[in-house]
């Protein structure tokens, strides 16, 4: 660029005046790790109320979760507990940061979704088997509703109205 060119270099332009003021937010109890492609993160309970919970930790390991190495997440190492049983990991308040391949966790989610659908089908089939074909007594409703006040389905003893007393 010549000295008579009115344009500025990109490095010299500051957008601080155009940026919005940062809003205060309450602090998060657990820090969020930077997301990496193909990897999902989860905090796994290793202790509860000061008592070690090896059953939950070992079950998570068998599901495919592995503790992350603190060296891979240096921004989170400063928040880790001082006397952790995992000196190479990141543990905060009895929760250990673990990671797993996203594809494996997608398969896990599909497995549990299939299991839930099978259970729901089993309940519906059992209701259908108990139903008398001559008189339908069981009605399945797969939705919920919220009502307020006194509706037509509410049993109320007839009592004096405020004007009758």
Structural summary, described in words:
- The chain is α+β, with helices and mostly antiparallel strands.
- It has three helices and six strands, in the order βββαβαββα.
- Strands 1, 4, 5 and 6 form a four-stranded antiparallel beta sheet that branches.
- The protein is extended, with a radius of gyration of 29 Å.
- The model has no long low-confidence stretch (mean pLDDT 79).
Largest sheet: 4 strands, antiparallel
Query: Given the helix and strand composition, which structural class is it?
Result: alpha+beta
Rg, nearest Å: 29 Å
Query: Tally the helices: what do you get?
Result: 3
Helix amount: 25-40%
Taken from the alpha-carbon principal axes, the silhouette is extended
Low-confidence runs: none
Q: Give helix and strand order, one letter per element, not per position.
A: EEEHEHEEH
Summed up:
The chain is of the alpha+beta class.
């Amino acid at each position: 660029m010549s000295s008579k060119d009115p344009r500025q270099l990109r490095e010299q332009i500051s957008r601080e005046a155009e940026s919005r003021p940062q809003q205060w937010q309450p602090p998060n109890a657990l820090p969020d790790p930077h997301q990496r492609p193909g990897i999902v993160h989860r905090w796994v309970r290793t202790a509860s109320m000061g008592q070690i919970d090896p059953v939950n930790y070992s079950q998570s390991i068998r599901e495919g979760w592995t503790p992350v190495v603190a060296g891979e997440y240096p921004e989170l190492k400063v928040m880790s507990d001082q006397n952790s049983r995992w000196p190479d990991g990141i543990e905060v308040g009895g929760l250990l940061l673990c990671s797993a391949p996203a594809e494996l966790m997608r398969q896990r989610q599909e497995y549990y979704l299939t299991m839930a659908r099978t259970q729901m089908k089993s309940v519906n089939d059992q209701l259908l088997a108990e139903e008398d074909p001559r008189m339908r007594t069981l009605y399945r409703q797969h939705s919920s509703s919220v009502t307020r006040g006194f509706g037509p389905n509410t049993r109320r003893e007839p009592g004096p109205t405020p004007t009758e007393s």
